[in-house]
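A note from the maintainers: we've had questions about how concatenated examples are separated. There is no special marker in the raw files; a new sequence line simply starts the next protein. For clarity in this README we add a label.
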Amino acid sequence: MEVLLFELTLTFYFAATVVSVAELFKGSKATSRLILIFAVAGFVLHTATIIFRYVDAGHLPITNLHEASSFFSWCIVLIFFFLEYRYRLDLLGPFTMPVVFLLMLSSSILPREIKPLSPVLQSYWLGIHTSLAFLGDAAFAMAFGIGIMYLIQEHHLKSKHLGGLFQRLPNLQILDEINYRLITIGFPLLTLAIITGALWAESAWGSYWRWDPKEVWSLITWFIYALVLHVRLTAGWRGRKAAMLSVVGFICVIFTFFGVNLLLKGLHAFI
């Protein structure tokens, strides 16, 4: 049942992605509504998939790359719905659903076997620490999408191509404000994830920090987003600079998520 639900989820997210790409070239209220319908259907099935996996595993399913990629994409769709409800942004789907689909596609080709938890992972910190981290990263993923939208809109404005996509994208001020708000959501979540991870490490290994590769790259990511907030408040960095830092920050998020687990050995390795 879980496998069927997962495949149906992937199908609906793929459909939402296809319509999203089409909307970039010729969008309408109908295509926007269709993206939302496919995304909602996929999210409902996705939630059911996670619940079934939870029942089978007996814990929050985030202990291997298959589960983590799936849960990460679920968190991104959750933030996507929040932004749709709060801001009613045009063209948000095309800058969100492809990322969601790629994460789910990577999840689909990764090993799905449920293995018994190691003694270290048998802790209440597992759900707390990882949920905070994934929700924070999801906010950064949406800030990445908004940042890309900002850079495209700014390019159209500077080149004086004021038709087509320019007229359908939100104005620069709105995009900059939403980018900032997303980072102010993601940053405290990441901070709490690092703190709870340190507390978990102390209870498991007797030290708060062990310079594990994922710990190091999480700290690098934290500093990047701390820099975004700092220079915005002190030096007035807004707009293009903030958007570019959002893109760089999310690249670090993706490397921390995939690169560290696949390329570097450490205590946080899923395998």
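[label: protein 2]
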Amino acid sequence: MSAEALRTQQAGDVSATAGRQAKPVKKQPTAAQRMKQRRKRNALLRACIQAVFFVTMPGAFMAAFSGVKSIFLAISDGSALEMGSFVKALLGLGIFTILFGRFFCGFACAFGTMGDLVYRLSGIVQKKIFRRKKQIGIPAKFCPALQMIKYGLLAVIVSACGLGVYNRLNQYNWNPWSVFSFFTSLNFTLNGYVIGGILLAAIVAGMALKERFFCQFLCPMGAVFALLPQLPFSALQRDEANCIRGCQACKNNCPVDLKLEKDGFRGGECIACEKCAGICPKGNLTRWDRKLLKHEAVPVILKAALLLGLGFWLGLVRTL
């Protein structure tokens, strides 16, 4: 090889080496960035599941609670309880709740989905238009006491059914859930339910002020689910010894204001929305299915599919 050719080859090797060295190194995301991406994925998954159930099973809440009323109306009449569609819906969702916690409330209830949407829109309006850094709402310290209202409301409705006066009260068209069912059927007339429409408007106003306002404070079916026994393996578990001192991320992001240091996740108020698990910086919140399947999205998708299948079997899925 001539000297000129050798110099040309060496120059090419140097240029290639320089090119390789100049190639930018892909920067790895920080722990905070990975957590943000994880939260976005979890939020998107939950929103998609909620949208599916809002379209396909908007009347599941009403069907299950009609089962509660059917039982106590039968007791009032002294008649045999018929295993109708409403009672089957109550039993099906009740058993599902015992096995998997209040997954229906966190992911599938149309009323809860509407509450999440209203609260989020309220936050956007307050931030973008009114330039508020913190969303106006009901202070968390009042929530434990306000959560007791739904149990009182359940007791009143059950008592009215048992005493045989519930059907007479219905003539006043006060039921806001009936108005909601009109809207989900794309029927935007009140059909005489003026009082029900006013009550629904008041509930929506509350939803703008507090996350899961109706679920926490007013939902009688939520009270039923909260009173059901919860199997230990179906609850989220937290290894407190592994928590970051002073973190409180799970508590601060709980939509139903659970006092985790006191109540843990075994209380019936937990709606199994998985927001606490999604925000934990150490992934310290686990459940048996999350441990078994090694991926946080897979058990959520499987439970949603199982609940949708149950809805088909019970006739809760809306037909077009």
